[in-house]
Amino acid sequence: MLTGRPPTQHTSSTPISLELNALFEKTNINALFQEQAIADFSSKSLSELMPASVQRQTEFDAYPEEDYQWLVEVHQWLVEVLEALTDIVRRKANNSFATLTEVDYERLDAVLKELIYIVGDDEKHPLAPLMDFIGVLITKYEDEHFPKLTDLFSELMEGVNPKHIKDKVCKDNTTKVPEKPTNTLAAEAFFSIGNSLLDGNQEEKAIYAYNQAIHLNPEYAHAYYNRGIAKGALGQHESEIADFDETLQLAPDFAKAYFLRGFAKVILNRYRSAVADFDVSIQLNIDDSLMYIAYFLRGYSKYTLRFYEDTIADFNEGIQLKPDDAYAYFIRGRAKVALEHYEAALTDFDESLQLNPGASYVHFMRGRARIELGRYQAALTDCDEAIRRNPDLAEAYHTRGEAYRLLGKAEEAKADFQKALELAKQDEGQELKTEIERSLQQLDNTE
Predict the structure, then answer these.
(1) What per-residue confidence (pLDDT) applies to 63?
(2) Is residue 76 domain-resident?
(3) How far apart are CA 224 and CA 207, in angstroms?
(4) Residues 6+ apart with CB under 8 A from 157
(5) In 322-393, which ranges are continuous DSSP H helix?
(6) Alpha helices in 17-121 (DSSP H)
(7) Does any domain span residue 134?
């Protein structure tokens, strides 16, 4: 038996999918990059983002913090309920649920008592569909196996019109007659279990519950969608995308499914395909809290594809929606550097550092822009600060080495280039190594 008080009653609508607004309101994208050795939005960074961000909520009010231990017990109990219901499903021909064994009945009766305690009369509670389904199974069993009073005491029927009894029984039992097919109720019950387990970070068990929901209702779009979210939390991005594919086959206007599929594709470095998904999610007017992320990720994808003008356009839109994201200014500034708009880039880097003064990668990029403008001493100051904040930032040493080289300080430049190459060989891309080697060659030629 579960102990402790029941949770706060919920007042929101019946669950159809997991809500993403809270997910991204809790996600500080800028924080992903503060410690990055290279100022790039790497697939590794995104993979690390997903588990942290999957503190996902259903479309219900959050439980109060003091109910946490109680909720842990509920989630453990739900796993047992999931296993029991799955066993019943497997034993029923054509998923008809026509009969239960006595053992089934006793188990489900105990579950129903707990659900009455948890859910009460709150029809919008996350577990209300589970209570409804088990209530239907219990009612069917009792109708088949428990004698009615009129059967036990036939004298009660003397002098009574049977039609009146029948009419009264129908009226008394109107709430017990399910409005949906039993298979649909069963699928919704498994879906509600999956949502609660996913909310408790039990992704594998949640996937198991969604599997049952989909087995019972293969056209359950939101079950595919939520299963995709659970798979994304586990880093199973190929399978996650496949579930969003299924979702969109069944619900072609599901903006959040396009959005999350694009997100998964960015993780897998499929930027062109990701752009297409973000295009649709934006066209479908995904809500504002996600609209910013859609512009952000579409803009970043375009940046990696070297569509710099389009990158700037997306970040212009994003910054209007969220003007306090330091990293948005940084990427827009990098796109401007690529287009040789150095003064405009400096403005963005300045804004980024106003919002996040500790960002080493912004300091060295501002230094790079200053080199292009001939401001070598200011570039040295920026690179010194970047290295002070992150001594392992290869690009900062490389940029400072360029400033020293252009100032005619060959010895200092060579030391920085060698340090940059040493760091780049550890974990950076081939492109950076090539740039550093080219700088060393230029320095040798000068000497």
Answers:
(1) 46
(2) yes
(3) 10
(4) 150, 165
(5) 326-338, 342-355, 360-372, 376-389
(6) 21-25, 29-33, 43-53, 68-91, 102-119
(7) yes
